[in-house]
Amino acid sequence: MNKRITISVNLFLIIIFFSNNQLFSQKKDAGISSPIFKINGEPSYTKFNINRISTWFKNDGESDIHQNGNSGFIYPKGSNKGAVFQSGFLWGGKVDGIVRVGGSVYRQGTVPGRVIKNSTGKWEAVNPNEPDVRIYRVRPDYVNANLKIEVSDGDGKDQNEVREKYKKDWMEWPADQGAPFDDINKNGIYEPKIDIPGVPGADQTIWFVCNDFDPRATEFLYGSPPLGIEEQVTVWGYNTDGPLGNMLFRKYILINKNLEEKSFTDMYVSIWSDIDVGNASDDYVGCDTTLGLGFGYNGYYNDAVYGINVPAVGFKIVQGPIIGGTPSDTAIFKNKYISGKKNLGMTAFYFTVNGDNIYTYPSQEAYQTGTLAFYNLFQGKLAYTGEFPINHKTGLPTKFPLSGNPIDRTGWIDGQIHSPGNRTFGLASGPFNMAYGDTQEIVFAEIAAGATKGIDNLQAVTLLKEYSKVSQFLYNHFFDFIAAPSKPQINVTTSESEITLSWDQDPTTVMLIESYSKYGYNFEGYNIYQIPAPGFSLSEAKLIATFDIKNGVTAIIDKEFDERNNVFIDKVIAFGTDSGIKRSITINKDAFNANLPLNYGQKYYFAVTAYSYNEKPPYGSHIFENPIDVIEVTPKSAFIKEDISRINVFPNPYYGTNPQEINKYQRFVTFSHLPAEATIKIFNLAGQLVAHIEKTNPESQFVRWDLNNDAGYMVAGGLYLAYIEMPELGKTKVLKIAIIHEQPILDRF
Predict the structure, then answer these.
(1) Residue 732's domain is classified under what CATH number?
(2) In the chain, how many domains are there?
(3) Residue 375 sits in the same domain as residue 423
(4) Which domain covers residue 648, as residue numbers?
(5) Residues 590 and 692 in one domain
(6) How confident is residue 634, by pLDDT bands cut at 50, 70 and 90?
(7) Residue 31 in this model has a pLDDT that exceeds 50
(8) Which of 633, 663, 686 is the last residue of a domain?
């Protein structure tokens, strides 16, 4: 399917357009005007951007495409490099033996809003203009979170605006419509002052609901009448490093609300994607039947957008439709294990090649070449012939074309028949039946890997497959397997040349961290990092200290990808010191500046994490470390408590002049070695307050007294007492000042 732009000259002219940078690719089928049903509540768009991925979702089912029509899936976040042009969720089934297809691709067969019973007891789609028909987004830490990265990602003009958006969705979270939430008091009612909206434990959740009840939309899609489905969509992810920071999860809940109260038979669901990995015209696709994974990658070593560090992207079905099983089977449904049932996996993979007559993309609007063609694809057949693809390596029909291994070039892989080019792909699951009123839920992990120095186009595929294993394992454990201890609560003190971080002030928090034990992962220690700037990950930080339990655990070995040999090897990922637990550290050197002393007044960034260790992990990593909270610190005080003796005033005595004075009308003495904040009260020997000075400048140790009283008149010669209060230190100091000068000059000319 070509990228298209439209020129209007009394008729629509479709011009095939290829862009070297797919970020500027035009939206497919933009030449066909959207009908009037494209009315949406506001906001209709929002972004998932809590980890390394930044991508768009719309409340009518549109996904991974920017609201301006350009590629929407940016990876890594902030790079302005796109890896996916658009994706969508599709379904197809039979009503009274007649095939119907719906969902979302380049066009949307769904419209925003839920389906409710009207006054006559019949199902009816709500008006898309209702205020609650919008897309919602929440994060549990929005009140205190640093939202600078989201601002830079285009979420709002400043942090306050982004925070207000989160607050609004928190307070108006549509739990009564099906949106998930953490029911803290277990009363089954969403209470915004008590409960936490979103997927429990997730760091960001998006939710919306749409339906296929508008026949104009479904016929505009693929010429099909509606099935009668309400679709509830949940998107969520985690702010963490490692594999989990390179993926998001998409749950689709389908409810049969057919107007005729009919069942759906021979039903299939599918995730579809137009991957544009950087340059739109040089891609390959493939699938891994052992993982239930469909993926796209660059056909060449070098890409016009990403260069030599090209990522791979893919979708993995982590929870397929639920069907009957044997007594030994177990399925996942509604966050529970269901005995005697099973989840279908990937039952077919399909792909299209731009310009190919066999692996062609279905035509839109027409029932025969749209609905029936896509239903063929869902079954693993070719769109227009209805025959299974023939594996040119084995000569046998297959539902899984391109299921070979592009790494070792075994089996049928992309590139053996077609040159690199514009590709789409999809993975399907079915068949299953849905009686009237039935609910199905399907969950996909959307994963990216690579775009990292040293990882080429094929190595990214290897990494993607490893990430997909992690996604399934964590999902099977309901993400309760994110086995990191709680975050330390950090207290900061500074001097002119040192920074002290401590995390022992709250005994309850310390005990909770250091007694952590879960799934064989036990608290092991603390890591202290210096971070280059806010927004950087641990991979870009410098470890400056480790305080760990004395238990003989030093070098911790994990599997790590070896880009040179394209395999995973044993590598030391953490160095324990076996030094014993400490809960504070004093830092006086800049790890990013050749360990030179810290600079007075300069901003520095640090993080303290707690981590757990498992000698024999059930999968993957031996350690789990909590995400970083960046601490911004500026050395601003010349003080430690022993330095109070350095506070002084000069010249003292003041003999009518000061070498720093430029004329006799600007007389002063200078207090030195003061902390960032100080209050100086000057008294005469009668105990009367003469002058009052507030020091609030953290970037200077000095403050001047102009020898005037608080009324603005020069004080007489004599002995004065300077009483200095230092609230930061909880200290005071008294200095004597002798002033000897000529007759005060009261009039100035």
Answers:
(1) 2.60.40.1220
(2) 3
(3) yes
(4) 644-740
(5) no
(6) confident
(7) no
(8) 633
Selection from 217, 325, 229 nearest residue 269 by Cα: 229
Cα R_g (the chain), whole angstroms:
33
**Residue 734 resides in a domain:** yes
Domain boundary among 633, 667, 695: 633
Instruction: Indicate whether 538 and 676 sit together in one domain.
Output: no
Same domain as 682, residue 628: no
- CA separation for the pair 269, 89 (Å, rounded): 8
- Spatial separation of the C-alpha atoms in residues 226 and 631, rounded to whole Å: 53
Identify the pLDDT of residue 344.
98
* pLDDT surpassing 90 at residue 641: no
Asked whether the predicted pLDDT for residue 463 surpasses 80, the reply is yes
* Pick from 249, 226, 233, 188: nearest CA to 441: 233
- Tell me the average pLDDT across 541-568: 71
- Cα separation, 543 vs 529, in Å, equals 4
pLDDT score at 12? 25
Rounded to whole angstroms, how far apart are CA atoms 144 and 565?
44
Band (pLDDT 50/70/90 cuts) for residue 32 is very low
Q: Of 560 and 262, which is predicted with more confidence?
A: 262
Query: Does 468 lie in the same domain as 326?
Result: yes
Are 132 and 204 in a shared domain?
Answer: yes
Co-location of 583 and 728 in the same domain = no
User: Quick one: 598 and 714 in the same domain?
Assistant: no
CA–CA distance, 92 with 552 (Å, rounded to integer): 58
Residues whose CB is less than 8 angstroms from the CB of residue 73 and which lie 6 or more positions away in sequence, other chains included = 53, 54, 55, 56, 64, 82, 83, 84, 85, 87, 313, 448
Contacts of 486 (CB under 8 A, 6+ apart): 509, 512, 513, 516, 610, 626
- Amino acid code (one letter) for 470: V
Whole-structure pTM value: 0.70
| Pairing between β-strand 542-548 and β-strand 521-531 as defined by DSSP bridges | antiparallel
pLDDT tops 90 at residue 579: no
Q: Which two tokens stand for residue 705?
A: 């007294």
Phi, psi of 485, deg, nearest 5? -65, 175
- 155 is a domain residue: no
- Tell me which residue of 363, 490, 554, 343 sits closest to 430, measured CA to CA: 343
Percent of the chain past pLDDT 90, that is, above it, reads 66
Helix (H, G, I), strand (E, B) or coil at 243: helix
Work out the number of other CB atoms within 10 angstroms of the CB of residue 696: 9
Sign of CA dihedral 176, 182, 188, 191: negative
User: 655, 737 in Cβ contact below 8 A?
Assistant: no
Q: Cα(149)–Cα(152) distance, rounded to whole angstroms?
A: 5
Is the Cβ–Cβ distance between 108 and 60 less than 8 Å? yes
Q: Which residues pair with 181 in a beta bridge?
A: 197
Whether 544 contacts 565, CB under 8 Å? no
